[in-house]
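Data deposition worksheet. Section B asks for the primary sequence of the deposited chain exactly as it was used as input, without tags or linkers unless they were present during the calculation. Section C holds the resulting structure in token form. Section D is free text for depositor observations; keep each observation to a single sentence. Incomplete worksheets are returned to the depositor.
Section A, Depositor: J.P.
Section B:
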Amino acid sequence: MRGTFIPVMNLARRYGMTLSPSEDTTRLLIVRYLEMVLALEVDEVIEVITVPVKEIKPPPDIDGIGYEYVLGVCLSGESVVMILDIDALRDSVDCEIMPRNEIPA
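Section C:
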């Protein structure tokens, strides 16, 4: 990926949520979907899991900010995990390219 420009999306900023008080702790979660690579700016990454397609259930029928981007839900241990629809995010993204010296480690 060295030398490649990757669009960055800050989901908190996009949906008017409270921004993390310290950008020193933010991370870029690189997501690859088909031929697209997208970086999601997140406060932290707790765990990365692999979910078999058969375990993904349709999302519950509720309204909320950004809920149209939820592809489904699954269980990880005793926690419910929402799975983002990267294709829908990509189609609606207003990406910004961060200067190289501003990309979090």
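Section D:
The beta strands are 8-10, 27-33, 36-42, 70-76, 79-84.
The longest helix spans residues 86-92.
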